[in-house]
Specification:
Blueprint (H helix, E strand, L loop, with lengths): L2 H16 L10 H6 L1 H34 L4 H50 L2 H6 L2 H19 L1 H24 L1 H8 L4 H36 L1 H6 L3 H54 L4 H43 L23 E8 L9 E8 L4 E6 L5 H8 L7 E6 L2 E2 L5 H7 E4 L10 H5 L5 H4 L2 H14 L3 H5 L18 H15 L3 E5 L7 H14 L4 E5 L3 H4 L4 E6 L2 E6 L1 H7 L2 H17 L1
Parallel strand pairs: 3-8, 3-9, 6-7, 7-8
Antiparallel strand pairs: 1-2, 1-4, 4-5, 9-10
Helix pairs in contact: 3-4, 3-7, 3-12, 4-6, 6-9, 6-12, 7-8, 7-12, 8-11, 9-11, 9-12, 11-12, 17-19, 22-23
């Protein structure tokens, strides 16, 4: 466990103990306040841009009236042109400024929120990941976060600009042109407010369905790509294509539903704007003919009506963005509302690096049922492993072997009985200490899309990586102990060979041995091998076990296996049958009992003899 991970556990568990309701009240306000000065600066700059934009029609009207009435000479025209140029320069520089401030703040919020989401996911327990698919989580990190960013960035600008521009344009229309004409032109625009209200309600519903459809599609694509070899092996490409097609069609329909709504709302806004322009032309033209309004002011008034079109269009865009963000917010908040089942019972010890595990393990009437299960997978299991001993665990599939490993690693907590480490309840040890002092090789050997060297060194702390020569030597020793060194040296890039996604370029046995090397390099007090030698031949298996006995002297090793050859050198062997401990003893003692262990041993011995023949 690295220093960063230890700090993460310490901070999270302190927060969980002292402010457990924070996740339930997840809010964007702290993220917005972090960039309050960016928003304030951007809005001030945007206000100046709008003011500059507001005076351009007035300057144009003054030029027209001045030239028509003969009241402007060349210097007067040049003065007004300079004002127009100055307003344009303010708009150009200001637009860069508010984009830098507000869009930059939105990107910063997205960055912090994504980091916090991922950090929170790392603290969640196995139960959460068992019930949430990878594709759905990926959609929340991409599509939903992007929707939130648009809401706290462009949508904020649009909303502010629409409100401010509407108010300022109406004031200029009243003060500079005519109050009556302004009222007549603006009355139709009030219908927009009513339309926006109903549009927002329906848009939120459709956006929620649209984003859920995107999540389903993302999950299906991710699953199909990850399992493409299985699809090809079982000739299911056509069936999978139809499933992808159905998911794509569902996503398309939900997107079209939103597009249809916008297709109705957009032209409705244009129609209302057109009515306002028509009123301006009819009544404004008559006022020009009557001499109530000058030609220049009439031209300016038409420009102002055109400037009101933008807020009307922006109103629809804002509702669309905020509706999409509201749906995204609920999905993201759902992650933060989740709380881990497994937390440090004593958070004050979370950052204490001086706590170490010796390796004594005691199970006393241990009973365990999975959170979503009804039948216990372990029933009244009692056994003891002294520090430095090797324990073998044998049992049929589904007998509870891997569940026992999960309890030792505190992936789950037991409900009944006791699980003691060094004579203390396992819950008294900080999670960071358990994960540091217990190395684990799971059944499903996971390798990252990186080099073999980085995969083997994955579990080491950052301080050890500061000495590259010593690190390489340690990696090679671990690889030799796991009997993978010779295979690695046969690759073109040796230890710098890229293994591909999930180690796809390696064989099953090579992946297992690479995972064993990764665990051995940690030199942990307790090593748990969960059926980790099933894909290697018996000669390689025997050599690895010999290396384990030599390297792991004084350290506890727990080996879960189906082959007796893997277990017969253990100090004790525990046999599990449907979650119960039915046999326990040394290899010789269990053979004398003539039970399940002896039966499996004789069967496997016969299979070996037949293979030799």
């Amino acid at each position: 466990m690295t220093n960063a991970n230890i700090r993460r556990w310490q901070v999270y568990n302190t927060m969980n103990q002292n402010n457990s309701s924070m996740e339930k009240r997840f809010s964007l306000i702290p993220y917005l306040l972090k960039y309050k000065w960016h928003y304030l600066g951007g809005i001030v700059i945007l206000l100046f841009v709008d003011l500059a934009n507001l005076y351009i029609p007035q300057f144009i009207g003054e030029v027209i009236d001045g030239l028509a009435d003969g009241l402007l000479d060349r210097s007067g025209v040049n003065g007004l042109l300079m004002k127009l140029f100055a307003a344009g320069a303010v708009m150009m520089l200001g637009r860069f400024g508010w984009r830098f401030c507000i869009f930059g703040a939105a990107r910063g919020i997205e960055y912090r929120l994504r980091n916090d989401m991922f950090g929170h996911l790392e603290t969640l327990s196995a139960r959460y990941f068992n019930s949430h698919k990878t594709g759905d989580l990926m959609a929340r990190f991409t599509n939903d976060l992007s929707a939130l960013r648009m809401a706290v960035g462009p949508a904020v600008v649009t909303a502010f600009d629409a409100v401010v521009m509407t108010v300022m344009v109406l004031l200029r229309m009243v003060l500079y042109v005519d109050f009556r004409l302004t009222i007549m032109a603006f009355v139709p625009l009030t219908l927009v407010a009513v339309g926006c209200y109903f549009y927002g309600i329906e848009a939120k519903k459709r956006q929620t369905r649209r984003q859920e459809a995107f999540s389903l599609l993302s999950d299906k694509v991710q699953e199909s790509v990850a399992g493409v070899r299985v699809l090809k092996a079982f000739v299911q490409e056509e069936e999978d294509f139809r499933a992808i097609e159905d998911a794509s069609r569902n996503s398309m329909e939900k997107n079209l539903s939103m597009v249809k709504l916008r297709a109705v709302f957009g032209p409705a806004l244009d129609a209302i704007t057109g009515i306002s322009l028509l009123i301006t032309l009819v009544f404004g033209g008559r006022m020009v003919l009557e001499g109530t309004v000058s030609i220049g002011k009439f031209v300016a008034f038409n420009s102002y009506i055109g400037m009101l079109v933008w807020p009307m269009i922006a109103c629809g865009d804002c509702i669309n963005s905020f509706s999409q963000a509201a749906a995204a917010f609920q999905r993201i908040a759902g992650i933060f509302r989740e709380k881990p089942d497994i937390v440090d019972k004593r958070p004050e010890l979370s950052g204490n690096k001086d706590i170490h595990i010796r390796g004594d393990i005691t199970l006393n009437n241990l009973t365990f049922t999975y959170p979503d299960g009804e039948t216990p997978v372990l029933k009244n299991v009692s056994l003891e492993v002294k520090a430095g001993e090797m324990l073998g665990i044998l049992g049929r599939t589904g007998s509870g072997k891997s569940s026992l490993a999960d309890l030792l690693l505190r992936v789950y907590d037991c409900q009944e009985g006791a699980l003691l480490v060094d004579g203390r309840p396992i819950t008294e040890f900080p999670l960071a200490v358990l994960h540091r002092d217990m190395a684990y090789v799971p059944q499903d050997n996971f390798l990252f899309s990186d080099t073999l060297e980085e995969n083997i060194a994955f579990g080491l702390e950052e301080r050890i990586r500061d000495h590259p020569e010593q690190l390489r030597a340690s990696i090679k020793r671990a690889a030799k102990a796991a009997c993978i060194h010779d295979n690695i040296m046969g690759f073109p890039e040796e230890y710098r060979t890229l293994v591909g996604e999930r180690g796809v370029t390696l064989s099953g046995g090579q992946k297992q041995r690479s995972s064993i090397a990764r665990a051995l390099l940690m030199d942990a007090s307790v090593l748990i091998l969960d059926d980790s030698l099933s894909a290697v031949d018996t000669d390689t298996e025997e050599q690895i076990l010999e290396n384990l006995l030599h390297m792991r002297q004084g350290r506890t090793t727990i080996i879960i296996a189906h082959r007796i050859s893997t277990l017969q050198k253990a100090d004790h062997v525990a046999v599990l049958t449907e979650g119960e401990l039915t046999e326990y003893g040394t290899h010789e003692e269990l053979l004398k009992k003539r039970g399940f262990y002896a039966h499996i041993y004789e069967k496997q011995q016969l299979e070996q003899e037949l293979n030799v023949i």
